[in-house]
Amino acid sequence: MKHGRLLIAAAAAAPLVLAACGGGGDDGPVTLRMTTWSASEDHLAMLNEIADAYIADHPDVEAIEFDPLPFEGYTSTLTTQIAGDNAPDLAWILENSAPDFVSSGALVPLSETLSGTDGYEYDDLIPAATELWRQDDELYAYPFSTSPFGVFVNNDLLAAAGQPTAAELIASGEWTWERVVEAGAAVHATTGTDGLVIRDFDYSGWDNLSTLWTGWGAQAWSADGADCGFDDPEMTEALTFMHDAVFEQEAMPGPGTTADFFAGEAAMTVTQISRAGLLAEAEFGWDLVPLPAGPAGEYSVIGQGGLGVLTVAPHPEEAADFLAYMTNPENSVKLAQYFPPPRESQLTAEVLGQANPLLTPEQLQAVVIDRIDSGVVKPSHTGQAQLDQAVRAALDPLWTADADVAGVLGELCTAIDPLLAQ
């Protein structure tokens, strides 16, 4: 998948030439296209509502089309469109692709447009939330979703296994990974359902495991991206803990097994608040709590999505103006229905509660508001597509009962060291 990175660079190499072929030379109103990885009817309805209001006041834009691409392979599809002279005007960008997009020149600088828009309140953007999307003090994408991971808990399954609720464990200072696995194993042994699921991991989305290993102080690679961290003692300890939870304690489903927490098939799941809507008709008592503490103490992991304008967009100026409108304070509140905003003034239980009626102010405060500033963003690196494939393949031998965890992780670093050095 190394070609994904090269496609971005190639597309960025002649931005002015390609852009000149688009809206800048059109005589009439233009149509903007924006890619997303969500085909949710609710998400698209919200986006279309914002777009319709914009079009009503901007006669130079006659339509705004939202183009959902499958999440699996999203970045590869997007970069193929860019290289194939079929680039969208705007695109959602995954946090793990941010270094490639930001460093390659594939994105239009946004700082001047956003700060110069009346009523935008550019200084309201939280520096920690925008850090991944900046280079040399220039903002290249707006982090429309800055969402800490938490744990949804099925209190009924815990009770059936004679286990305390997560709230009770928090109150007693026992909300730790060790205690979570103990409770998950008890649920599985007693009820036959699964204990804990790290949602979207499925033994392939390895970067979601950062929601666990960060509790040990582990990291995939050093802060400068140069050194592999998978063979560090902290990572070995963290993934040994998980391996035991899967194969010895049976607290987590093994490879090839799926369990949907929201359908009542697991006692706990690690995911983000955007999934809360799946509990609207839940027939079990549930809670949402922060990630459990690990040996390194309490921590937070954040998943982000950025919204950027491509330099090879057919209509980059109109697209940047729409981005400024779509992410202004008023519309940011609308986006907050599903995506925690990067605006300090809007990270309140009142604002988030209006957008997330199933969650209590206490849940939003503990899981989202109190965790954003200190959160660690999921792993990202230049050349992420190739790294992702290499890490996934190197981790495959880990998911057997008799795996040599330290040996597998050592081989993993051998496999990715040349990629980190590029």
TrEMBL record:
Q: Does the keyword Signal apply?
A: yes
User: PROSITE patterns, alphabetically?
Assistant: PROKAR_LIPOPROTEIN
InterPro entries in the record: Bact_solute-bd_prot1, SBP
- Recorded source organism is Glycomyces mayteni
Q: Which residues form the signal peptide?
A: 1-19
Instruction: Output this protein's name.
Output: ABC transporter substrate-binding protein
| Keywords from the UniProt entry | Signal
Does the keyword field hold RNA-binding? no
